[in-house]
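Weekly structure sync, notes
Attendees: PL (lead), two postdocs, one rotation student
Agenda item 3: pending single-chain targets
PL asked that the sequence for the first pending target be pasted directly into the notes so everyone works from the same version. It is reproduced below exactly as submitted, 334 residues in total.
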Amino acid sequence: MKFSIGDQILLKRTGEEGRVVAFLSKTMMEVEVSGVRFPVYTEEVDHPYLKWFTEKRKPAPKPAQEIPVEKVADRVQRLARGIYLSFLPQFVPGVMDDIIESFKIHLINETPDAITFSYHARSASGASLFQHKATLHAFGHVYLHPLTLEEVNEQPRFHWEVSPLAAKSTASVNGVLRIRPAQLIRHIGEMLEQNNPAFELLLAQDAEQLTVPIVSAEALPANVGEGIMAKPGPQIVLHTQPEAVLDLHIDESGQDYTSPDEILQTQLNLLQQKLQAALATGMHRMIIIHGIGKGTLRQRVHGILATTEGVESYSNHWMGGYGWGATEVIFGTH
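Predicted structure, written out during the meeting:
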């Protein structure tokens, strides 16, 4: 390829453009690129004309267009569901099985009215865990505080009081909420089965009708737990012997089970009895056979283990004779 002094050139390796300054030999020339002169082999340069003609030209900028104004639409009316406490579980990171280590507590106002609220979480002994007073707008929610699984196992009391912000009177409703371990396990199981991110407990149904609060099996009178020690619950009397290997599969022959839920509850009751027996006798290790299936029984078993005091650890791993259908439980030293 022939060049003359002063010709425009293109460096093949870098794509930079320059010009020929001098010829040093038949195979080398001196070029200038961006004010710098240096020698190059003739085979390393090319004419830039092909690049000029094949380059895509930048399109001319389009004139600015007016952004269309969004049409005003009526807001979708939301149905009032009530005022709730929401428990959002936090799982142990990096673990194959879903193991809950704590909860995030939210107050949810699913009513069309702004409210004022007072909230105070106490331990069973009356010690303060968290308290807060504020206002909450209609259909809003607020994060209150975290709650570890150890604190949940101690059955804390959630004292609450809500009233409508626009009310002329001082009408309000209050109560104390406590979740027992069996209820917690049930809520977690239902949450996992329904693939919900959290479970909620209803406090009041309507901010404008606060004279009658919602009363449920989990609600306590408002004066319970105010600075006094909670009375201990009944002692569990063991009527069963511990088993090193507990098979939860039920022989349905001769039994009249009305539904799969009844079978599941029977399995969980048996598990709780055997766990208490193992703890009472100082057993160190237990194998719980729950099978694989859809994983419902395994999840419920793990929910019970996670909330049973005295269980040091548990793991659903491959074991000879059981495959993935069993969980190994290690009890702590007493």
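Discussion points:
- The chain has three domains: 8-54, 82-220, 245-331.
- The longest helix spans residues 260-280.
Action: rotation student to compare against the earlier draft before next sync.
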